[in-house]
Design brief:
The chain is α/β, with parallel strands linked by helices. It has nine helices and ten strands.
């Protein structure tokens, strides 16, 4: 019985193969085309993606705005500073980078400059310079404008005087100006002579009434054009002429540096200190009211000596207490 059922199934299977191969249309020559069904991205998913991108961008902008605060390591109670060998060298000969930089008092730095001159047999009349680095940064990426200033030093070191031109139409003021050392004094008639380079000077000062008439000289004089901020506009003619004839001029260079001469090394320590104090006070007068310390770093040096870092805060807080002069 079992063998009969097997043979019946084999016969039926063979008949089915023949029916499928013989009957029905053949699709051998018909090209098969595959359709790529579009993948739809729903609008809801896209909005979520946009929101995620916006959140990421906002987080990035917040991270940029948040400034990283400088971590100041307090190593005053340690046996040695971080990254250094010791607080002070034991021997006279040592590698400088292994020890912290020495910051001197201003009076002590001046004494060292004088000692360097004696030991090195250099000229005693060599100039003394200072190099100041200023904090010119303000809020919201703003900066303090670079300035130029002229001051009267307590002890002038230069015997040369500058050429000064005064603009005024008052005859009495012209006489006062010439009596106080003005090289040229006059009114509107000087404008064409200055444009033609017939008259040149180191400084140009004017009375307030002359400013509207001097506008043709603005492009010619540029930084030398009279301004009230610099003290080159006023009615006190003798004071202006004294300031610009015998005064000392300095300016901010390279965005935040003041490099200028303050004295000569043959002057006494008290005289050098007084000139230094006068310049530092004038520099700090340009500091905005809401700012902190204006001078970040102060260096003093002579023409042939090494640079000495000194404490500018003490110079501004208190005057020189020593009475000895060398």
């Amino acid at each position: 019985m079992a063998t009969c059922t097997r043979t019946v199934w084999k016969v039926l299977a063979g008949c089915q193969r023949q029916l499928l191969s013989a009957g029905g249309p053949s699709f051998m020559n018909v090209p098969h085309t595959h359709r790529n069904l579009p993948v739809r991205t729903f609008a809801v998913a896209r909005t979520f993606q946009k929101k995620d991108k916006k959140k990421e961008e906002e987080e990035k902008t917040k991270e940029k705005k948040v400034k990283k605060e400088k971590v100041v390591m307090d190593d005053s109670q340690r046996h040695k500073p971080y990254g250094k060998t010791a607080w002070a060298p034991v021997d006279d000969v040592y590698v400088r980078r292994f020890y912290p930089r020495t910051t001197y008092d201003a009076a002590d730095a001046i004494d060292l400059l004088k000692n360097f001159q004696v030991l090195d047999f250099t000229p005693p009349t060599q100039p003394v310079y200072i190099d100041l680095k200023l904090n010119m940064k303000l809020e919201k990426k703003k900066r303090v404008e670079q300035f130029t200033s002229t001051i009267l030093l307590p002890f002038p070191f230069s015997t040369e005087t500058s050429r000064v031109v005064l603009f005024t139409e008052d005859e009495n003021q012209v006489k006062v100006a010439k009596e106080n050392g003005a090289d040229v004094a006059g009114g509107v008639e000087l404008i064409q002579q200055i444009l033609d380079d017939e008259i040149s000077a180191d400084f140009y000062v004017a009375v307030p009434e002359m400013l509207p008439k001097l506008l043709p000289l603005k492009n010619k004089l540029r930084k030398l054009f009279p301004k009230s901020k610099r003290g080159s506009v006023g009615n006190n003619i003798p004071k202006m002429l004294q300031l610009f004839r015998t005064g000392h001029e300095y300016m901010v260079e390279s965005e935040c540096y003041v490099r200028t001469q303050i004295a000569t090394l043959d002057m006494s320590r008290g005289q050098i200190f007084a000139n230094l104090q006068k310049i530092l006070e004038d520099v700090c007068s340009h500091r905005p009211a809401n700012m902190g310390p204006f001078i970040e770093r102060a260096i003093v040096a002579s023409h042939t000596s090494e640079s000495l870092w000194f404490k500018s805060e003490e110079v501004l807080q208190k005057p020189e207490t020593r009475t000895e002069d060398k």
